[in-house]
Write a structure and sequence with these properties.
- The complex is a heterotrimer of chains A (124), B (102) and C (404).
- Chain A has five helices and seven strands; from the N terminus they run H-E-E-E-E-H-H-E-E-E-H-H.
- With 124 residues, chain A is an alpha+beta fold.
- In chain A, a hairpin with a 3-residue loop joins strand 6 and strand 7.
- Chain B has 102 residues and is α+β, with helices and mostly antiparallel strands.
- Chain B has a single domain, classed as SH3 type barrels.
- Chain B has a five-stranded antiparallel beta sheet with strand order 2-3-4-5-8.
- Chain B is globular, with a radius of gyration of 14 Å.
- The relative contact order of chain B is 0.25.
- Chain C has a single domain, classed as Up-down Bundle (Amino acid/polyamine transporter I), CATH 1.20.1740.10.
- Chain C contains 18 helices and no strands.
- In chain C, helix 5 packs across helix 6, helix 5 runs antiparallel to helix 16 and helix 6 runs antiparallel to helix 15.
- The longest helix of chain C has 44 residues.
- Chain C is globular, with a radius of gyration of 20 Å.
- The chains are: A alpha+beta (124), B alpha+beta (102), C mainly alpha (404).
- Chains in contact: A-B, A-C, B-C.
- Strand 3 of chain A pairs antiparallel with strand 1 of chain B.
Chain lengths: 124, 102, 404
């Protein structure tokens, strides 16, 4: 398998077939003598902007401090939760429990639901 | 030590003698039920072709130009890469000892 | 039968692309200044778009990924970020122009200046997206868009010399005003080959749940839909050539373009023009707003879908809400939509390579497309379109300055 071609920037799908974002980054654990392995998938936060320029990552962090959900950093999903890698990456987690949908839920509750016709974000 | 793959991507690599080898463009990994181990690093601009899945475009051009070495990709086994300084990765071997692929 | 009715996706895409304020203004300008000489530019734009739209539909049907999905996944986030910056900036300007176009149409119908219409018009566009479904937008805009056939009626009623018009389908150089000719040609191509059209169509194929069985129908929809739009655009050019050029009228105001309809249809032409432009710009505004929201949502991996309740795809809904109301702001201050149109056409042409170059790679990707990858014909066409896009990118801004 090729990490950049097959994993990085791919869409992540949870147990309930819900979109939970894209692979923004990957954490590789490098030991003294052991073979490096991928320990975590990173979603969101300033991880993405860091890939363009560190200054953009700083701006992203600053803006996130001004408004938005409490959990603002990148979400870390252990690699052990990966079920399959294909056109999309299927995970053995529920998106809501990981914090990957923190912004989606925050915008739904604080903005969208306050507009008539916006509906309710939570599943009944 | 934890290293971010997405930041390692595109970093210049030197060999043990300080000679430029190229940039890290791809990672070969072996995946099993619970782990994903890095087998090798692909170095060289042409490794970008792997990422773009563009060999179906490039092979005919390469054939037309009768070139074997037009596109150079080095495959570096994990043991031969020193990532103690992730911003300046170094090989533990010389460039001449590297394996070309494709 | 259901697949045949999908032709509405093709029609709304092309109406939004070919019969919106930019295309009408540039086609009318082309006819008024150069007669039939620039019909080749409309034909070239149409042909390019048929291929690009067919490819984007095929990618979506086979891989269940849109062009945006595939661009992010294959080229990475930094490249996607550059495309996003270019595309969103230009599409936003076009959205301002379209909302302004609706306002200008209402201005000529009611006498009330277009800045007064900025907020009501934006609200209506937003409301349709907030409450409507993709099918409603698709079918509604397509059906209403058929009123633009009145441009064809006007062109025919003016009795064009078909032989001379046919000559215009081949490129020729004008005797004088070469810079202006070049500028209008680039504007026509920039107005036709609009990236937002391609992103909208590819997303629409996913919204309509296409699969591999839609591949033959996709060819027909792309071909028929874009031909319909190109044909309408040619009708505008022909009508302008006959109604405006003999009188030496150069289009620099929106209401001057109404003459191309009123000359042929004195009784109803005025209302038909205003209503046609209103409907066409409305369809375009919906399409562009959706295209921008799709671009963000697909690129960042958010939930998206026009059929979902807004709270179920809150970030997607938030983006189009913000974009639509921000686009009303320049109009409130009386910024001329026609000027915005001309600048946005040149900028579209300048940023085209960012959209087109990925096509060459994505449409040959065996993982996404398998046996449905491009053949040598399609690859050759994409290569030619890439060449055209680089030429346009190089000359559009200098020509805007010299000939605009």
């Amino acid at each position: 398998m090729k990490l950049i071609r097959d994993v990085l920037d791919k869409k992540l799908i949870d147990l309930e077939q819900c979109d939970m974002g894209r692979v923004s980054g990957l954490v590789m654990y490098v030991g003294e003598r052991s073979q490096p392995h991928i320990s975590h998938i990173l979603i969101g936060g300033s991880t993405l902007w860091m890939r363009v320029h560190p200054a953009l990552a700083r701006v992203s962090n600053r803006l996130a401090q001004l408004w938005g959900p409490k959990h603002k950093g990148a979400v870390r999903i252990p690699w052990t939760r990966v079920k399959s890698v294909g056109r999309d990456i299927k995970l053995d987690v529920e998106a809501r429990e990981t914090g990957a949908l923190a912004w989606e839920i925050w915008i739904a509750r604080h903005i969208i639901e306050r507009i008539p016709g916006g509906g309710k974000e939570e599943v009944e | 030590m934890e290293i971010h793959i997405e930041l390692l991507l595109g970093t210049k690599v030197c060999d043990v003698d300080g000679e430029d080898v190229g940039r890290i463009e791809e990672f070969h990994v072996q995946r099993d039920e619970s782990s994903c181990r890095v087998d090798a690093y692909l170095i060289g601009a042409s490794a970008v072709i792997e990422r773009l899945s563009a060999w179906t475009l490039v092979r005919p051009v390469k054939k037309l130009l009768h070139s074997r070495n037009l596109l150079t990709v080095y495959e570096v086994p994990w043991q031969d890469m020193d990532l103690s300084d992730p911003q300046h990765p170094r090989l533990r071997i010389a460039k001449r000892d590297l394996r070309h692929i494709k | 039968m259901k697949k045949v009715l999908q032709i509405t996706l093709g029609i709304i895409t092309s109406v939004g692309g070919f019969l919106e304020i930019g295309s009408v203004t540039t086609a009318a300008q082309a006819g008024a200044s150069f007669g039939y000489q620039l019909l080749w530019a409309v034909l070239l734009g149409t042909l390019c778009l048929i291929f690009l739209v067919e490819m984007s539909g095929r990618l979506a049907a086979v891989s269940k990924h849109t062009i945006v999905d595939a661009t992010r996944e294959r080229f990475g986030f930094p490249f996607y970020a550059v495309v996003m910056l270019g595309m969103v900036l230009v599409a936003f300007m076009v959205l301002v122009a379209e909302l302004g176009g609706i306002g200008l149409s209402l201005q000529i119908l009611t006498g009330l200046g277009f800045p007064w219409w900025a907020i009501p018009v934006s609200f209506l566009v937003w409301l349709l997206m907030w409450k409507g479904t993709f099918r409603l937008i698709e079918n509604g805009a397509s059906l209403l868009g058929l009123v633009t056939l009145s441009f064809v009626v006007a062109a025919v009623k003016l009795h064009p010399e078909w032989g001379s018009a046919a000559h215009g389908l081949l490129p020729t150089m004008p005797g004088d005003q070469k810079a202006k000719y070049g500028f209008v040609a680039v504007s026509i191509l920039g107005a036709s080959i609009s990236p937002y059209l391609i992103y909208f169509y590819s997303s629409g194929a996913i919204e309509d749940k296409w699969d591999e069985s839609y591949i033959p129908m996709n060819r027909m929809i792309a071909g028929f839909g874009m031909t319909f739009g190109g044909f309408l655009s040619m009708a505008v050019l022909v009508a302008a050539a006959l109604a405006l050029q003999p009188k030496g009228i150069d289009i620099d105001k929106f209401d001057q373009a109404a003459l191309l309809m009123t000359t042929a249809l004195p009784k109803w032409g005025f209302y038909l023009f205003a209503f046609s432009m209103l409907v066409a710009c409305f369809g375009a505004a919906l399409e562009i707003s959706l295209a921008i929201a799709y671009f963000f949502a697909q690129g960042f991996g958010w939930n998206w879908g026009e059929d979902l309740e807004p709270s179920k795809d809150s970030r997607f809904s938030f983006v189009y809400t913000i974009i639509i109301f921000l686009a009303a702001v320049p109009l409130l201050f009386g910024v001329d939509p026609i000027k915005v149109t001309m600048i946005s056409m040149a900028l579209t042409a300048a940023t085209l390579p960012l959209t087109i170059v990925p096509f060459l790679f994505l449409m040959n990707d065996p993982i996404y497309l398998g046996e449905h990858r491009n053949g040598w014909v399609s690859n050759s066409v994409v290569a030619i379109i890439i060449l055209i896009s680089f030429v346009l990118a190089a000359i559009s801004i200098p020509l805007q300055i010299i000939g605009g």
